[in-house]
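REQUEST FORM: STRUCTURE PREDICTION
Request ID: SP-0412
Submitted by: Lab K.M.
Chain count: 1
Length (residues): 217
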Amino acid sequence: MKRLLVTLVAAALLVGGCADQHAYSRSVYMLVDTSGTYTAELNKAGQIINYVLARLHPGDSFAVAKIDSASFTEKDIVAKAQFDSRPSRANAEKRAFHQQIGNFIASVNKGSAYTDISGGMLQAVEWLRETQAGEKTILIFSDLKEDLPKGHVRKFPLKLKGIDVVAINVTKLRSDNVDPRRYIERLAQWRKKVESGGGHWRVVNDLDRLDGLLKPL
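STATUS: Completed
RESULT:
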């Protein structure tokens, strides 16, 4: 009986330790727009990914997925990892992740016809929830112009409670130069969609000032 009690206490401590570890970990899901002329911005995406990699710790999770014509699928994830708790092993995993991203960027030679940002965000939420991390972030590298194939339905609320959503490098379209209100309205619409789903919304356009990209744990 005493041995059983000791075993149960040890198991409880182990579960509690795992829960605490998740609470102090971070998971980041980055969506990279591969539509139209925005593919010309992919080298900048690589710089941001390297920045994030350098700031993630052992035990943290990172995934990078492309935004294309139909983004609600794991097939669009080009690299993902939950880094090992051992620093030396985590560093090796980061180097492999970096190589995967380099191969991905080099392979993109034609932009997708459509831009399913909402589908990509829905996939991001599912992945982030599964990591059970205490700090969850979605990074959206896009001009935020959503363009869906005929028949695709994306008019649904996103459940983003506890998730920080950061739009990065939101470039201005040619039509925005004609009427700047379109750019302002596009940002306002995405902010409303994120905040109505319980998420936190931010925009980072100055890539020389990425120090506030990830919230401190």
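NOTES: The longest strand covers residues 26-33.
Reviewed by: T.R.
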